[in-house]
Amino acid sequence: MASASAAATGRHPHLAQPCRPGWVRVDMHSHTMFSGDSTTTLDEIHDSVVESGIDVLCITDHNAIEGAVRLQKLLDGVCRVIVGEEVRTHTGEIIGLFLTEKISYGASAAATCEQIRAQGGVVYVPHPFDPMRKNLTEASLISIADSGLVDAIEGHNSKTSLKSLNARAVAFAAERGLAIGAGSDAHVPLALGSAYMEMPDFDGPHDFLSKLREGTVVGHYWDEARPWSPRIIPSV
Question: Residue 181 CB: number of other CB atoms within 10 A?
Answer without folding.
Answer: 34
